[in-house]
Every structure is written in structure tokens, then in C-alpha cells.
TrEMBL record:
One of its GO terms (cellular component) is Golgi membrane. Belongs to the sulfotransferase 2 family. Its EC number is 2.8.2.-. It is a single-pass type II membrane protein. This is Carbohydrate sulfotransferase. The keyword Iron does not apply. It comes from Eudyptes sclateri. The gene is Chst12. The lineage of its organism: Eukaryota, Metazoa, Chordata, Craniata, Vertebrata.
């Protein structure tokens, strides 16, 4: 009887070990390699980024997490001698690449020099941004939906904005309308997740826009379940603990204006069918609408900014489906009270923040962050855009996005919320 039990136990242990080896092998041959923070792959030294606590180690992890981390780390030591092409590649050629995308041609790039903008003390700025975020996350008197839930309570499908680069130990939560196209390009270059004629892209702006937003291009947390099964949450926690996590945010009302301009003032077939047609029917009393966006624009049928605001405030909208990512609140996209971000960038200080972040990640010699658009939607536009929006609607809209204003220290737009 004892021998039989020992045999069964041995079979179980061998099976578990083989499953873990398969997981490691699968990840090694996948598009993103599982390089934990060994001396070979760590992008910064302890304490290099404000908010990272020096002296963190594996002992603080639960038993299963510790076992997985040590197993995976030991199995990957053999990879430390493999040359990493990304780190051998320097940005070459013209600093002003040819831009073929129509939208980017229309907007244009701002190539003016920003190297002399050293007025911001970036380290102190990061400490202040993180302090504000953590204080309000811990403040029991400040509440908003999903604030109190734990990381384990977040469904996998809500983790689809967390992009992982295992080569350099980076996690980026992308927020649409906050330079996410170019940050995704940077992540593609760093992770070498996309090839051009068999060679990884070196220049972010060489990557076509349609590939940038293809979900298959990026390794995101919501894909972990398919790859790692029941170990996925444990591995997420390991990476969240050891990797550098960042996001970029923007004034919430300005982001809404930018989303409206991009999705409803330009001809966009998908957004016309999914959103514009229902808005025009519900809030502008149009019937028998054209089936294509080009026909609708030709007939002068466009969603107004007022229609868009009504749609956001309509209780039926969220009952039908969650907000589209382009106007979904940042706290719902990136879970800042459940994930301890090491770096918080803002679009308003994009050039300075991006340059500082790339230096901290020790990848600034590999690439430069693409330049800003010349005619980017600005906060000075708010008064004009909201001039015809009723005061009550503006106040409701603020309540809808209040958590983003408060958590990321954007001033309350008092001029829009009073008579």
C-alpha cells in the first residue's frame, strides 16, 4: 500500500514538473520571452525609479509564486549568453522618417527641438504623482466603482490593456488618445514582437499603424490564461512585482474631445456603424440612415458633440456594453488602485516624460520616442467645445470622470461646472 501511494505521488509530481517545463518552453519559443529580472535583463538598478522599493526579493512572494519564479529563473539562466539583437541596434538613418499613414499626414508631426526643456524636475514630479495616486486610493472617503476590489477580482478581459515586454522587464498600460499608438510602437521595437522581412523593427515610426493596433502583435495580461492556464495569475503577480510598470494619462475632458474628433469627425466605417448610427437615431431623431460613412458624410449626417455627450450620460449605454476603450475611464482601463505603477506620464508633458522614462529603462540608446502631433487637441479648446453643452450635462459628465481627474491630479474644471 505504501509503495502504491509513493508511486502515485511520484507520478503527480513528475506530471506537475513536466507541465511547468512545457510552460517554460512554450514561453521561450513564443513572441515574448520570459526574461525575469536577472542581472542580464533588469532594466534598472534598485531604487532607480521613484516608487520602487529597494531590497524587494522573492521571499515576499507566496509559496506557489516563489516556486514558479525560481523554476523559471533557473531554467532561463542558459539564455543569458544569447546576444540580444535589440540592444545591439542603434537608431540609424534620418530622424524624420517618411510617414505614409493618411491620418498622420493630416495631423503632421511636431519635429521642433525639445532637448532644452529641463525645467521639470522629473524625479520629484514622479514622486508627487505617485503620492497623489496612492493617497486617494487609500482614502476611504473618496469612492468610485471597482476601487475596493483586489487584483484577483479583476476579470481577465479587463487586463487586455497591459502590454508586457519580457526582454526588458516592462509593463505598459495603454490608454487610447494618450499617445498610445507611438508607445505601442516603442513596445514592439523593444520586445521584437513584429518582424519586417525577417528582421525586428528598429524605428518605431516604420511600423504601419494597422500592425500597431493588431491585438495579435502584443503580449497582454488577458492572453496569459491561454498560455499559462491556472498559473496565469501567479505569473502576473510575479511580473507586476519585478517589472517596471508605466502608463500615460491626459486631462479627461480633453481626451473626450480628442476621441470625438478622431472617431466621428473623420470617416471611420467601424465607428459609424457601431456608434454613430445609434447616436443619430436616439439623439437626433434620424431614420433611414445611410449604411456607409462616406454616404452619411456626403449627406451632411454627422454625430454632434452634443450627441456624443448624451450617449455617454445615457444609462442605457453601459447596460448594453462597457464604454469603448477610447472614452472608457483610465481607472477602468489600467486599475491604478490595484496595480502599483512605477511611472505616471502625462500627455501634457509628453516629451519630457517620455525622454526621462526611456533613460530610466536604459533603452534610450536603442530608440527615440516619436514626436508629438502639431495640432494635438489642447486644454484651451475646452471652453469652445463645451459652450453649447448644458450645465447639468457638464456636471454629470464630471462625476462620470471624476476619479480620473482626482487620481491623476487634474484640476477640476470649475469654469465649466458653474453658471
Amino acid at each position: 500500500m505504501t509503495k502504491a501511494r509513493l508511486l502515485r505521488l511520484s507520478v503527480v509530481l513528475v506530471s506537475i514538473f513536466m507541465i511547468l517545463l512545457i510552460i517554460v518552453y512554450w514561453d521561450n519559443v513564443g513572441t515574448a520571452h520570459f526574461y525575469l529580472h536577472t542581472s542580464f535583463s533588469r532594466p534598472h538598478s534598485p531604487g532607480a525609479i521613484p516608487g520602487i522599493t529597494a531590497g524587494e526579493d522573492w521571499e515576499a512572494l507566496p509559496d506557489v509564486d516563489e516556486f514558479l519564479a525560481k523554476l523559471l529563473s533557473s531554467s532561463l539562466k542558459q539564455n543569458s549568453s544569447i546576444p540580444r539583437k535589440t540592444e545591439q541596434l542603434l537608431v540609424q538613418g534620418s530622424s524624420k522618417p517618411v510617414v505614409s499613414n493618411l491620418e498622420e499626414n493630416v495631423r503632421g508631426y511636431d519635429w521642433s527641438a525639445h532637448n532644452d526643456r529641463n525645467s521639470l524636475d522629473q524625479e520629484k514630479l514622479q514622486i508627487e504623482r505617485q503620492r497623489t495616486l496612492r493617497e486617494f486610493c487609500a482614502n476611504s472617503s473618496f469612492t468610485f466603482p471597482t476601487k475596493e476590489r483586489s487584483f484577483d477580482d479583476i476579470p481577465n478581459y479587463e487586463l487586455n490593456h497591459l502590454i508586457v515586454d519580457d526582454r526588458h522587464g516592462i509593463i505598459y498600460c495603454y490608454v487610447p488618445k494618450v499617445a498610445c499608438t507611438n508607445w505601442k510602437r516603442v513596445m514592439i521595437v523593444l520586445s521584437e514582437s513584429l518582424l519586417n522581412q525577417g528582421i525586428p523593427y528598429q524605428n518605431p515610426l516604420d511600423i504601419p499603424r494597422e500592425h500597431v493596433h493588431n491585438t495579435s502583435t502584443h503580449l497582454t495580461f488577458n492572453k496569459f490564461w491561454r498560455r499559462y492556464g491556472k498559473f496565469s495569475r501567479h505569473l502576473m503577480k510575479i511580473k507586476l512585482k519585478k517589472y517596471t510598470k508605466f502608463l500615460f494619462v491626459r486631462d479627461p475632458f480633453v481626451r473626450l474631445i480628442s476621441a470625438f474628433r478622431s472617431k466621428f469627425e473623420l470617416e471611420n466605417e467601424e465607428f459609424y456603424r457601431r456608434f454613430a448610427i445609434p447616436m443619430l437615431k436616439l439623439y437626433s431623431n434620424h431614420t433611414n440612415l445611410p449604411t456607409s460613412v462616406s454616404e452619411a458624410f456626403g449627406a451632411g449626417l454627422k454625430v454632434s458633440f452634443s450627441d456624443f455627450i448624451q450617449y455617454l450620460l445615457d444609462p442605457r449605454t453601459e447596460k448594453m456594453a462597457p464604454f469603448n476603450e477610447h472614452w472608457r475611464q483610465v481607472y477602468r482601463l489600467c486599475h491604478p488602485c490595484q496595480i502599483d505603477y512605477d511611472f505616471i506620464g502625462k500627455l501634457e508633458t509628453l516629451d519630457e516624460d517620455a525622454a526621462y522614462l526611456l533613460q530610466l529603462l536604459k533603452v534610450d540608446r536603442l530608440l527615440r520616442f516619436p514626436p508629438s502631433y502639431r495640432n494635438r487637441t489642447a486644454s484651451s479648446w475646452e471652453d469652445n467645445w463645451f459652450a453649447k453643452i448644458p450645465l447639468a450635462w457638464r456636471q454629470q459628465l464630471y462625476k462620470l470622470y471624476e476619479a480620473d481627474f482626482v487620481l491623476f491630479d487634474y484640476p477640476k474644471p470649475e469654469n465649466l461646472l458653474k453658471d
